[in-house]
Predict the structure.
Amino acid sequence: MRWVAFLARRIAGAAAVLAILSGLIFAATEALPGDAAGVLAGADASAAERAQLRADLELDRPPLERYGDWIAGAVAGDLGVSLVGRRDVDAVLFDRLPNSLLLTALALGAAVPAAIALGLAAGLREGRPADRMVSSAALVLVSLPEFLTVTLLIAVFGTWLGLLPEVSLTPLGGRPWDTPQAMVLPVLSLAVVGLAVMTRLVRSSVAEAAASPYAEAARLAGVRGVRLALRHILPNALGPVVQVFAVMFGGLLGGAVVVETIFNYPGVGFELQQAVANRDVPMVQGLALALAALALAVLLLGDIVGTLVNPRLRSAP
Amino acid sequence: SSSGGQSAAQQASASPKSGGTLRAAFPGGGAAETLDFLNGPTALDYVRARAMHGALGAIDPGAPDGVRYGVLERIDISDDLSSYTLKVRRGVKFTDGSALTARDVLYSLNAPVTLGSLPFLKPPSQNFDLAKARVEDDLTLVLPTKRPIADGRLILCQSTLVFKDGTTAFTAGMPTCGPFKLTEFQPGQGAAFVRHDEYYGLALGGGPYVDGLELRSIADATARVNALTGGQADFAADIGPVASRTLAANGRFAVETSELPYATSLSFGLNLAHAPFRDVRVRRAFKLAVDREAIVKTVLFGHGFVGNDLPSLGFPDYAKEIEQRPYDPGQARSLLRDAGADGMKITLTTGSEVAGLAETSTLYAENLKAIGVDVTLDQRPPGRLFADEGYFKLPFAASFSPPTPPLSQYESTRTAGAPSAFGFDRPDIDELVAKARGARDAGERREAAVRAQRLMWEEGNQVIPVFVPSINGQAKTLGGVRYEPFASFSEARLV
Amino acid sequence: MTRRALFAALCAGVIVLIALAGPLLTDRSPTAQAGNALLAPSPEHPLGTDVVGRDVLARVLHGGLAVVALSAGATVLAGAAGLALGVLTGLAGRRTGELAVRAVDVLGVVPPLLVMLLLATGFPAGDLAVLVAVALVSLPFSVRVVRAATQQVAGSGFVDIARARGDGQWRILRHDIVPNILRPVLAETGLRLSASIHLTATAGFLGLGAGAPAPNWGRMVGENAVGFALTPWPFLAPALLLVVFAVSVNLLADELGRALGVRS
Amino acid sequence: MSELARVSGLVIGPASGGAPTVDGVGFTLDSGEVLGLMGRSGSGKTTTALTLLGHIRPGLRLREGSVRVAGLDPFAPADVRRLRGRVVSFLGQDPAAALNPARRIGGQIREAVRLRAASAGPDQVDRLLDAVRLPAGRDFLRRFPHQISGGQARRVAFAIALAGAPELLILDEPTAGLDTVLARETRDLLRELAEGRGVVLVSHDEHLVRALAADRVLVLDAGRPVSAPPRAARVTPSPPPGPPSEGPAALRAERLSAAHDRRPVLREVSLAVGRGECVAVVGPSGSGKTTLARCLVGLHRPAGGEISLEGTRLAPDVRRRTPDQRRAVQLVAQDSMGALNPRETVTAALTRPLRARGLPRTRVPGLVAELLGRVHLPASLADRRPPALSGGERQRVNLARALACAPRVLVCDEVTSALDAEIGEAVLGLLDELRRDLGLGVVLITHDLAAVARSASRVLVVHEGEIVERGPTASVLSGPRHHVTRMLVEHAADQGFGAPAP
Ligand SMILES: Nc1ncnc2c1ncn2[C@@H]1O[C@H](COP(=O)(O)OP(=O)(O)OP(=O)(O)O)[C@@H](O)[C@H]1O
Ligand SMILES: Nc1ncnc2c1ncn2[C@@H]1O[C@H](COP(=O)(O)OP(=O)(O)OP(=O)(O)O)[C@@H](O)[C@H]1O
Ligand SMILES: [Mg+2]
Ligand SMILES: [Mg+2]
Ligand code: NI
């Protein structure tokens, strides 16, 4: 019963945040100087042509009215039509979102277990060679800007070794997973970035937990190795880590732009960037709202898991 | 090495071979890409349309009429320049087997107005009175002009594509009469085509030679080059000057640049609303200050053409007799001093919409500093330059312009104080341009055109230091890529 | 101070020194064209020239200040705000804490790039926009890490006792909470710094942030990325400086955490 | 009988140098034997015992000596793996801290069973729980360590240590904090367990050690083995409790009820402590004493009832009390490890409340030294952090810290459980002194009936959250009426802590 109330409260909270966000997103995109008419018309268009385009695109209606329409549509599952290219925003979303989700999920799927394993290995051996190695590697990786990591990965695996395609060209009419080898580098690029960040956090949390009296007691009771790590130390180190994983997911999802652009991966982040460049307000709004909703859902999950792994919070959610 | 498309084409025709699937990579527009090329924002939308739809023709300075005809056989102009007669080629067939008629052509010319379109497709409807057009018979269409013009062929053939009478939606299954048949289209990803076996060009002994064509959309220039070098594409469009140098070092690939007139002008508008620019000496100083050769050399690595502050380099009406303006910072400085504008403060607003724009602006700003102008560069992020309503109010702004015939371009953008002219309002030049376009006598026409351009050269408010061609990378196995005005693969071959 | 800490401090010091004193070390203009574009290193141009033929060394020497100030500023901003918000929401009652975290979530779920694009458009000064954007984008991470760590500590017996004793929130914070969450917080601060360096550089890479043609390591990396295959230095030199800066500061944060966290 | 363990020439000292903590200890142990390890708080008992597991606490270092257990060297990494948990099993002094806070106690016990006993059926868990007298119900097993009482935590830890029938059992204060009934049962259990294996029993409970270890007793003094058996704690009769003071009680709780997770654990408990008075609260482990203590200081929100301080009503939540009210009622918590900030030195821990009282900076060091002296802690401890303190030392730091607040009422939750008789006596003496001199009211929660007899004027007996008996100490202890009280008193008598003659 308490759990039901807890979940209800969290979901209501998330919904409220989403409502506020929708307003913010709308306001922010409205505030973008210039509009799609300007972009479409180009430099040489006359004022009259611009005005005509604005009217065609219904940009001359009052913002509040358009916001109302947008929200009403969004609730009904219709995110409107893009200004540029005139496509259904939901269609684009449903086309691209699975790709992005797959990319992010694979990256996280690769990074999270690896980060936990490496973070544990290092945190449990604080100060010893294994820790030095892992920490130093994570330190350097975390300090490399994404595009540099990506450039290096491409140079090594694509250009020098020629093992993997440098561009993720999806077969026409297919999906990225139809050519798995083309997904390796994008996933790797994204995973490496997340891996370094998460490894460091796991390591510091684990080091903290490993030095606690209960960990010592477990060691004195003869618990060792994997069991010690997984059953005794990790549960206590997980609180902050889960939270960050959740934020990470949202970040990776929306922030995969650099990776998606460089590999020409057909994802939402890439579309979002294009849409912003095109001043395609409905597209920006729709994609941003969807990403926000998704990220919120993951955050919610993170909160719930975070509460679950912290017994003090768990017993009284 | 701006070897031009020709040599490669010759190479290819030395050992003609048909077949294969050509894969070309273009900068795309993501989900915004559309089959509705009338409203398609990217070059790729137009390239794709050009592959599937027949074109009236293409601008070709080497051809007798200045144009190479496509689905038309010829265009006859009445002596008084007030009526154009379009003769449709016999035997042009749509993919559904029906024949192309004059009615289809008229419908297509009207479409930008009736269906709505981006401004660059509107010149035919602006210059011809389409409401009064007459279909004489299945293959003959007569178009009265709104006022007598001599360059109507260029306007008609520049970018008009034809489709069936009554078309309202552009779909993958629609009947088309271009060199290729669309088989697959995914916005943001690409389109696949097979050769259209009933294409009229085949009967004339031309292309297409390849069996299939894939146009892939790859936004990032580096990624396009990677796709090319990684063997995922045979052609990479718009790779930019720097990447072209990298590619040139690789023996398996060639860098091909488009020939004139297919080059984009980089220009700088001096807004006459800004007091110092009202003094012609200041404008002249700004033109003399720019080191054009250096820009071509360092920014474009030689892949570019020095501009002479006049648009439309390479078009028939371009005034090539006007002498090249020199780089003369000394004189520029003294002109500024004379005008009392020494040490003037100005902000140069620029963007990175096309290759070289940002870098050219950077060098230009340095050139201006050297003559004593206190210039600040306002470099806007990509896609941001024209998005702003206030663009035409900027005192000093960078711009670019795709290749278009000079006179009609002048009329649509700079006459009668159009805002895009940055306050330049010269009825005398307007009149000269109108005269040039409408004069029956070729000599007379030429003279008016040159006079108008000389006035703009001397007193105008546009600095056009360079023209940037489209720089593409392609596998050495590929030849026959043409420009009309974007890359076209109807004559391309893979060897 | 351990050898590692010393080394890290030294590296960070050198970078900051380059950033601060760099402009004094060269009399070449960082914006003037000095030769052909993308020249390989030569005695005249020790690091070669960039995509528009400017001397890379001069640009590197002039371009550090903005980056160091920007990333340090964003880190301090996000770190301080994150610590404050994280601790407060971690300690506050369930309701208030949750509310505040939701509020921060609003930031966390907007894609970072969007925040950056919006701010870079809205602000007149691009670099300031990048700073604020970076700080805003980092904030949710900070808050969540700090909050989770705080919650863990806040449940312990010694905090109970201190509270029962009448110690004010501030005292509890200073003596009980902060020292016990210091390691994750410091590790987090290191991450903040890398993140802000990343984002600044990424902003440069994507052409955001104003101020061109003024040199800025982040922007230089973006400008010269295309020329990487021709001559890597215009790209590598600023990138390396950024990386070394990030590595050394992260290392310093680690060592500091270790030093402060000694369990006797 | 075969030799199970041999320790010789053990010298252990701070890693940073200085006087050794353990100096020249040696002994042997055969299977079937019980070795008692006694000595004052801080004399090195725990440190010595831990060497059998090959463990030296961080900050200390093995300087000399050798240890062999079942022919293996616990300080050799390869051997220690075969020893820990299989041959040697350990019950630590601070079980609350040793249980993993993130895991349910049922899971922790089950894991220990599964890990050690190859053929362990589920009944193994039940048998262990029964041996330590813990309920085997699902509800209990699903709780987390912070949801059980201090005595329950110790028994959970005991159950874990017993799992898998190890050959050598090391028990550090196994009965501290257990009520007399449980303590007695534990003694019987240990006697049973000692058959066929070895036990090292660290305890300050002389009767327990004597009952189990007969004459195999090693007494430590400042780390050195001494031959003299410890001086028997003399239970001095309590000074006649002063007459209950006039006026409102220092602290009064009325009809207090409290629950954990909606499970009631206190029902309408009333209690009053006068100025200078000491009221004892006794009761079986898990009866709700700690919960009562936490309610009094405002850390646990009661479900009903009222608390007042010198006639003024106190808010149920400590956050709602005034600073002065908060300082006036101080708690010395049962879990002495958890109650100390691991990052704070002893000095810092004592300085904070002093500074919070607004005392000038210059006076603080003097007061800190004085407080340490009062609880019999050497000044050399001042710069240590809690993990570097012995169990008894931590308990005294907790007490000193509470006293630093200059409280008017002190709620002591098992303040002497980890102390040897001598220091325990001294601590109680200190409380007497403060009661007399400053009028400090004391709520003494304890299982030690001797301490109750010695200090308290009145006793409350809690059983399953209710007060089942109350009255003047002498009459309750000598003529218990409720069966629970009777049991507690009887078992205490068995152990030698007889109720004082009436
Ligand atoms: N946080 C909690 N959540 C749920 N139950 C709890 C919690 N704390 C204690 N309990 C339970 O409440 C009862 C009373 O616990 P309390 O700690 O008050 O006992 P106690 O009398 O102090 O016992 P001991 O002598 O063993 O310390 C016990 O059954 C215990 O298991
Ligand atoms: N890391 C350390 N550094 C310095 N001294 C330490 C450290 N750990 C423990 N000590 C000291 O060593 C002495 C012995 O500690 P030990 O825990 O063995 O005592 P004990 O006999 O078990 O006492 P108690 O009965 O109070 O538990 C104590 O005085 C303690 O302060
Ligand atoms: Mg001990
Ligand atoms: Mg208790
Ligand atoms: Ni009963």
Summary: Chain B touches chain A through 53 residues (CB under 8 Å). The pocket of magnesium ion (ligand 3) is lined by residues D 45-46, 93, 172, 390-391 (CB under 6 Å). Residues 1-16 of chain B have pLDDT under 50 and may be disordered. The first strand of chain B starts at residue 21 and ends at 26.
